[in-house]
Amino acid sequence: DASLVGQTYACSPWRTIPITDLMIRSDTIDAIRRLYRPVQIEYEAPKTWEMEMKTVRNAGIYYDSPDSIQRNVKNVLSNLYSKGRVSELFRAHCDANHATYDVIVSCRFDLTQPIKLSLLDCVPNKIYTVHTDGRFYLSDHCIVFTSPDLFMRYSAAFHDLSWMDASDDCKKMVSRFGLEWKLNVEEVITLHLALFYSEQELRSIVVF
After folding, report:
1. Which pLDDT tens digits describe the chain residue by residue (208 residues)?
2. Given the DSSP bridges, would you call strands 127-129 and 205-207 parallel, antiparallel or unpaired?
3. Residue 135 neighbours by CB under 8 Å, 6+ apart
4. Burial annotation 109-131 (CB, 10 A radius, 16+ → b, else e)
5. Whole-angstrom distance, CA of residue 89 vs CA of residue 87
């Protein structure tokens, strides 16, 4: 879309990414298509997140987060939004093409940590995730292996953040799993799973 050319994306306040790397160029979308060869792709103009911020600012976890995290919330919203749209595109692709898949791999392409898991060892009723920074999460957003059905349910955390208003329940989960009470992607996903999955389902999460 020619209207996107020249626009720039924001990044985390503690990242030092050159502005030229954040700018949409005339060949950006074609380069992405050539590199990843996606069966579905969607691109939008950079979002301001003003409407979403009104909801987030009502959540206790936002006010209790340090200033550095509050300044990064739009980056968190962008991350969750992108993951949510991917899950919707995946569902639409499967429905339109009557496609079925055994395993879904959701990952960051800049992940440098070695992956010590064989897809041959995966079973359909489990979610496999990885520790990328030494802290414990029920699920790290950097890489997830799971079945399509569990992926769609797992991705529910990306679509609606209104549940974060339940601060007392969330804080109990933070204490239970030793997490920090702050608005990061990892904490949001872990808290969502802890609140809305049964104990049996939580035991199906394998951290490797």
Report:
1. 677 888 887 777 767 788 888 888 888 889 889 998 998 888 888 788 888 888 788 777 888 888 988 888 888 888 888 888 888 899 999 999 999 998 888 887 766 667 777 878 888 788 888 766 655 556 666 788 888 888 887 777 677 666 666 567 777 777 676 677 788 887 787 777 777 777 777 777 777 7
2. parallel
3. 179, 186
4. eeeeeeeeeeeeebeeebbbbbe
5. 5
| Structure tokens given for 32 | 């992405």
Q: How far apart are CA 42 and CA 32, in angstroms?
A: 11
**3-state SS assignment for residue 129:** strand
The Cα–Cα gap between 184 and 186 comes to: 6
Nearest to 150 by CA among 191, 98, 193: 193
Cβ atoms within 10 Å, residue 76: 21
Question: Amino acid identity, residue 153?
Answer: R
Tokens of 100: 């079925």
Which amino acid, one-letter code, is at 33?
Answer: R
